[in-house]
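G., the chain you wanted modeled:
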Amino acid sequence: MSEPVYTSDLKQALTGDREARFVWLCNFEVEREWALDYVGLPAPRVSNTTATVQRMEELGALLAEPADYLLLDRPLSGGYRRYIEKSGLGAPTELLTRAPAGAGGTSRAVLDSPELMDRLRTLARGGAYLMPMGNSAQEQRISEQTGLRPAVPDAGVYERVNSKIYSRRLVEELRLRAIPGFCCETVGELHRALDRDWGDNAGSVIVKDAFGVSGRGLVVVDSGRKADRLLRLIDRRARSTGDDRIHVVVESFLPKRFDLNYQFTIDRTGSTRLDFVKEALTAGGVHLGHVMPANLTAEQHATLAEAAQLLGARLYADGFFGVVGVDALLGADDLVYPVLEINARLNMSSYQGRVTELFQRPGGVALAKHYPLRLDAPVPFEEVAEALGPLADPPEDGTGLVITCFGTVNAQADSPPPFGGRLYSVLFAHDARQLTELDRRVEGTLRRFGIDERTP
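Predicted structure as tokens:
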């Protein structure tokens, strides 16, 4: 089994040094920070990160190399850490905040941890880099106050290129095949975007915040009545605040075969490399997983490869380098729509890189997903491993299972039982039939803990 090079290739692209030492900070939902100065849809602004999303920072343990460091607000389960080490991937050194993260997430907790900040200063003197999932003002302060060199562009660049409005305008500028829709930056523009014939065959549209994430900050409008209700809410807010700004996109739904996700990396010289293309599994705007490889023709794959080069050059011209994930769509007409939105940051699929490189065989298939659990009490990792039996062993000959995040299983344990948990995994098999059977076997073993049948 050869050593994985996915992360060292990323280090080469970002720093010019394959042996660079990274301090990883997996600040999921960094979009909340980028959205602070933008007006979205009327909704309570939730400032805190949910416990489950907070625990997803543990996904970084499989992306980091053993010589790296991973910032966490609480330690990995000892059993899970031993499991990672047994897999052959190795595990990074854990750097813990003084207290569990609050509303500001791990970045805020790091800034509030004097001893940890001193440790980061020591690492900075040794030449380490800070590698956040995405850079905002908080992560930038960590770099500035510790001396850790940022492996990524500054926060202003991230904010500019991650807006859904930016994505749509880039598609138009580059003349890529676009999802029909509008960019709206004033209430009047939104009125015009929703001024349409809402007859029986009109179809639905989706209105999305410029920085919406994880199925939040969006609303489906499928009738004139719903459009009027939404516009009344927005008009009322604009009158009360005296501010008619709004930052949303309005897009039509297209018949599709499936969603796509592809990733490319822009190095510091502007060279763009397509990393992978996957089928994306979603429901209601919420990410559920990936199927690898995507079932595309050579021509369809080439369309995405060409789009990656065009997007990479344009993003680099705007000051961005690093990892870019793009959501795309294969229409029912077999046409590729190469940009639904650009996520110029690490993505869920980014965290699967070393795992798939190590265990997916040529010609094999893989499925990344989470198993939703309903638990009456916290479950130790050892109990999950016991239930899985031989499936808890590292995959052999391209077949098996890797647990990619365990902390999310018990993240909601402070809630009244039964509480929801998620076991993130990647499954490997020789073909689609075998993959489906493996998925059923895993789900069957987990039923002893209770499976949540509800769709997010």
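The CA atoms of residues 111 and 391 lie 40 Å apart.

Shout if anything looks off.
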